[in-house]
Each structure stands twice: as C-alpha cells, then as structure tokens.
Amino acid sequence: MSDKVIDSGKKLDGPTDTATPVTDPAAPVTSSSTDTTTPVPVIDDKGVDPAAPVTGSSTDTTTLAPVIDDKGVDTAPDDKGVDTAPDDNGVDTKPDDNGVDTKPDDNGVDTTPDDNGNSNAATATPAATSATTAVTVTKGDDGFEHRHADLSNREVHGSEDSHNAIQGSTGDDLITGGSQSDVLEGGNGSDDLSAGSGDDILVGGGSDDVGLNHLEGGGGDDILVAGGHKTKAFDDLFASNDALNKAIHADAKFADLASIIDDSSASAVAQVENHFSVHSGNGNDLILNFHAETDKIVLDRDLNGSTIEDAASLMEHLVIDGSKVSLDLGHGNSITLVGVDASNLTESNFVIV
Ligand SMILES: [Ca+2]
C-alpha cells in the first residue's frame, strides 16, 4: 500500500553525496538510422544515476537525483528559455487544447477522458476535492516542507519557497510542487501530480494502485515512477542497484518508493493507467515502471520545435539501448523509459495533443 506516513521530522542521516557522477561509458546510446542530431543523454546501465544525491545530508537542500548526461554534466532545465512550468498557483493550465483530457480542470475536478478516442480503460474519477481544512506543514531538517493529503483534503499545493515532500491519500488527489526539487507521491487512487520546475521525483502509487494517474514532471530532470504493479524490469532495476536501494531505504522522503520496491504481493493485472504529460523544455526525464499495456506518454505536437506530429513520426525517434528506450525531443530534452521491452511499445503508448 502507499500510505506509509513519511516521518516528516526525521533528520536525514544518509551519506553525503561525494561521489563523482557515474555514467556507463560501456553502454553508449545506439542511435537509430534516423537519429542524426542531438545525442541522447546516457543514463547508467541501471537507468538511474547511482551517484545522485538522493539522500542528501541534513543540510542538503539543493538537488534531487539529477540526471547526468554522458559528458558527466548535469543538464540544466529550461536552457532554451521555454517556460513549461505550471502557473504561479502551481496549477497546470495547458491541457485540453485539443480535447484530450490530460489534467483535471482548475477546480481539481476531472473532466471527460480521452475525447480523441484513445483507449482509456481506467475510470477517470474526480481527482480531488477542494481543501476544507488547512494542510499541516512540517518543515524538516532536510529542507523539505512535508505535507500529507487525507480524505477530507485531497488537494495539496507545495510551497514555491522550499522543496516539497507531499504524500497523497488513499483517494484521488491533486498535488502540485513548486519551482524547486520536490518529491510527490500520489498513493492509491486517481492522482494528479504536477511538479513544476526543478529536478523532481514523482511516484504515481503503489503496486495495488487503481484508477488513472496523471504525472507531469515539468522542467528539470525528473524521475517519474508509474503507479501499479511492478514490471519485472523494475524489480531488476532495483535489485541490482545496491547504492540506489540503500539511498531510498535510508531516506524518509522515499518511504513510499521503498514500499513499492519491497512489495512482493503485486498483482500482475494492471488496475491503473498512468499518463505522463510532456511539454517543451521538459529536461531529461526518466520514467520507471512503465506498463506498455496501459500507460501513455502524452506529448505536445511539435514540442521543442520538433517535427513530431503524430505517434507514427514519434516512433521513428525512439532510440533503443538494451532495456532503455529513449526519445530525443530536441534541444537537449528527452524522455527515457527504463526497463521497457521496446517490442511491446506501440503507437498507442504515445498520444500527441
Ligand atoms: Ca491518492
């Protein structure tokens, strides 16, 4: 389950990150015949930068798990000056231009799903109710403000002035982060997570999650974890990455992610559908636990000035490297699906709006 309470007062005592960013020089990205432009950032062979400061010291208030490119450089977001962040209230206002429901409306009420006729097996239920009581905010020594949704208060907005660690309820939540690095976790239910700029970590929910999640990392190099049963590759990813395992289990901010990793009772039947919204200037994002049978990447047409106009043309941009499938979105932006069998991906996994 995904309702472990984050110990908001816990002082983080994880190891200080002093390691050099590690990439895997032995695993260069293999470009397709059509890929003649921008190199896709190489993530290490586990799909995650194991040297990233995911735990941080008690004084680490800077960066969460930046994705390092193959030159060892942390690729900064928004260097093209493209503003992709949600509005000042942290509410995404971009979707629905083409009739595809990718986000709830500004009142947190989910509107009709998939006007474009795309398969949408999961039932889109209202994402949140209006806040009726103030959400308790706990300022941790880790530099994060901790907030928890509950069933009477399922709309939670993080602070723009701090890192945010926000955990959803068992119901349908609407959660937004701020401009700094945030950790957002939806828990069970149909959740809407929007992190804004900064290098963020978003977790849709646990293995028994149900409903329809929307995850939007915004600018910055984000790690997005689909809710729902674990894929085998997801198991393998963490089972073989001791450093990442230790970091996650040592850090209260990752309590739910740790529970997902440890949950061996996951059903193999997908009960949840995850939609990942990608706009121009998204940075270099990793998507973990992607379920090819149900999940979708929702991209803006011609984002970053690309020629991606439909799912068919997008498929030509896929770069397959072992268990990683990357999509070069131009101008230094990319998404990488980690632990996905490329042969299972179809055009139905990509929606252009
Ligand atoms: Ca939830």
Question: How would you characterize the overall build of this protein?
Answer:
The protein has 353 residues and is mainly beta. It contains 4 helices and 17 strands. It has helices at 232-239, 242-250, 255-262, 311-315, and strands at 138-139, 144-148, 155-157, 163-167, 174-176, 182-185, 192-194, 201-203, 211-216, 223-225, 272-278, 284-288, 296-299, 318-321, 324-330, 333-338, 350-352. Strands 1-2-4-6-8-10-12-16-15-14 form a 10-stranded mixed sheet. Strands 3-5-7-9-11-13-17 form a 7-stranded parallel sheet, with no helix packed on it. A hairpin with a 2-residue loop joins strand 14 and strand 15. Residues 1-126 have low confidence and may be disordered. Calcium ion binds at residues 168-169, 171, 173, 186-189, 191.
Keywords:
mainly beta; ten-stranded mixed sheet; seven-stranded parallel sheet; 4 helices; globular; disordered N terminus; binds calcium ion
**Number of helical segments with 4 or more residues:** 4
**Which spans of ≥5 residues are poorly predicted at pLDDT below 50?**
1-126
Bound molecules: calcium ion
Distance between the termini: 33 Å
Q: Average pLDDT value?
A: 70
What helical percentage do the residues reach? under 10%
Shape assignment: globular
Tally the beta strands: 17
How much of the polypeptide forms β-strand, as a percent range? 15-25%
Q: How can the largest sheet be summarized?
A: 10 strands, mixed
Secondary structural class: mainly beta
The side-by-side strand order for the widest beta sheet comes to 1-2-4-6-8-10-12-16-15-14
